User: Fold this.
Amino acid sequence: MSPWLSLLGMARKAGKVEIGEDALREAALSHRARLILLARDAGESTAERVRRLEGEKLPVIETPADRAALGGAVGFASAAALAVTDLSFASAIAARLAQEEPGLAEVSRELAQRQEKARRRKADTLRHGRKSKRKQ
Assistant:
């Protein structure tokens, strides 16, 4: 099993994966999705609907895995598409995928930058405390 599929299984156990088109769409539209993974043998109409969700902050990656392998990693018989909702898992999965597919290096780099920015923001909040509420 590929390292990125193992990470995907861990993300599923942590509750950070949405499986199926409807759940994926809901996660994307509510801005919870960080990365969408599409099986290489997903149907044309499914792939088209999923790619429409792609945006500047939501990459869609066509994986080298087929539906059976993608579904097997998350405990299903098959899955054509799924969304990772945690930025750390999304960044790690994209980094492992970039090792297998060099063309995905840019997506991996962008997710790593977003993860670092979120980490710095969290550290600043912990260091300085919450912002005081404005008096109205």
Notes: Helices lie at 3-13, 21-29, 44-51, 67-73, 87-100, 105-128. Strands lie at 17-19, 35-38, 60-62, 81-84. The chain has a mean pLDDT of 91.
